[in-house]
Amino acid sequence: PRSQLCLALSLFTIMAYLAQHRPQHTCASRCLDSSSVRRYRTQPGSVPSRYQTTTASAAQAALSSSSSSAASAATKTANSENAHKYAAGVRFAGCGAAAPALSLSNDDLSQYVETNDEWIRTRTGIGARRVLSGGETVTQLAADASREAMEMAGVTPEDVDLILFATSTPDDLFGGACLLQGAIGASNAVAFDITAACSGFVVSLATATSFIRSGAYKTVLVVGADALSRQTDWRDRTVCVLFGDGAGAAVLTAAPSEEGCNVLGYDMKSDGSRNMHLVSPYSVYVTGEGDEATTAAPEGGRPATNAAGRFGDITMNGQEVFKFAVSTVPVVIESALDKAGLEKEDVDWLVMHQANQRILDAAAKRMKLPSDRVVSNLAKYGNTSAASVPLALSEAVSDGRIKDGDVLALAGFGAGLTWAGMIVKWGK
Predict the structure, then answer these.
(1) Bridge pairing between strands 278-279 and 315-316
(2) How far is Cα 421 from Cα 88, in angstroms, rounded to an integer?
(3) How many Å apart are CA 380 and CA 394, to the nearest integer?
(4) What's the whole-number average pLDDT of the chain?
(5) Of 82, 34, 37, 86, which is closest to residue 57 (Cα–Cα)?
(6) 415: left (phi over 0), alpha (psi -120 to 50) or beta
(7) How far apart, in whole angstroms, are the C-alpha atoms of residue 108 and residue 273?
């Protein structure tokens, strides 16, 4: 009808005017109140184009047909997209941590390599690290952390229906998640590993969020545990002073979608072109001589009988990794904040991968957060890879610093290279 065509033309003209004179605003930011923007921006990725162009799309759809049914369909499509809801929201119900009994201080290390406490502390902030000993395993640490998290959450192992195990050092080459499932008796859970090095725990939280939001699972146990002492050359003072072993866990549960989601926003990145800066590569070494010697597996992938191999000790270009961390971590946190519809000032606590105190300080400065709002336990544990974020989180929750309702900025970064940021509201 003529009236609908006129209305559509009017809408199109208005949109064109706004686009020309206010290019810095999206339709979402202009047409939605702040609470709505925050709700929509809990999506992974940038604000979807459908939220920015809904009105324009509806107008164009109306222009393309003079029938009332076409205009009605366009309106229903626009309303359906803007009324998008998850099947369930996410709550953080509990957390836990565990560390080996043996603590190796900087003074202890100075007996083996040419170093001292002052040299290590001034460059890293690390004073000691925990190391597996006496038959301790990664699975054992992960199980202890998991039990603590489940106890806080008020769930039993049988309640858990998904286990995500972030680790680069499982006790079995085929993975550690099923070992963990058996250790804690989570007989109803499917379990698998996620390998993203020091970003692993945050990446696993994002993965758990997707499963819960989809309605597939209701109670997810997310664990980060590593034993980088196994891959450390204890004669190399540039590396051995950094790493320690540990585990941390969190229980995420489903909540009715109308009550919202406590994962407010996240972002994840990878850059394999810089992989060489932090590696523990698999290497084949020669055991034969002359014509029988070989340094690589033959075609087809089956290793020769006279060759052996293993994943080598960690090697790292410390300067490049430092530059990578200080340049990418603040950006990925800011991206997650943007998707959450929040500002830096809204963050109560920064809980980052514990790699180097200077990196923590640089990120806090960029976010304009005071040092007493940055969770750091680096001095006691060193760099525990995928365990570092949940270890720090659990410690701050257990001592009362982090309280229900606090907004946390979580961030991991490391080998891959990978990095990830997430904004969450802590609590059930």
Answers:
(1) antiparallel
(2) 22
(3) 14
(4) 80
(5) 82
(6) beta
(7) 37
Cα 196 to chain center, whole Å? Answer: 9
d(CA 198, CA 416): 9
Q: Judge if the upstream peptide bond of residue 417 is cis by omega within 30 degrees of 0.
A: yes
Q: Partners of 265 in the beta sheet?
A: 423
Is the pLDDT confidence value at 240 over 80? yes
Question: β-strand 282-286 against 307-311: which pairing, if any?
Answer: antiparallel
Residue 55 has pLDDT above 80, yes or no: no
The residue type of 415 is A
Nearest to 31 by CA among 45, 5, 46, 11: 11
Beta bridge partners of 250: 95, 222
Helix (H) or strand (E) holding 246: strand 245-256
Rounded to whole angstroms, the Cα distance separating 173 from 182 reads: 16
What is the full DSSP assignment across 179-220? HHHHHHT-TT-EEEEE--GGGHHHHHHHHHHHHHHHTS-SEE
**Region of residue 234 (phi > 0: left; psi between -120 and 50: alpha; otherwise: beta):** alpha
Closest CA to 253 of 428, 402, 42: 428
Question: For position 27, what pLDDT does the model report?
Answer: 28
Catalytic residue annotation: 198, 353, 383
* pLDDT of residue 338 exceeding 90: yes
Q: How far apart are CA 376 and CA 411, in angstroms?
A: 13
For residue 320 the two structure tokens come to 């490049």
Strands 190-194, 418-425: pairing is unpaired
The string of pLDDT tens digits covering residues 78-118 is: 333 333 468 899 999 999 999 999 999 999 999 989 899 99
At residue 133, does pLDDT exceed 50? yes
Q: What is the pLDDT of residues 249-285, one digit of tens each?
A: 999 999 998 888 999 999 999 888 888 888 887 876 6
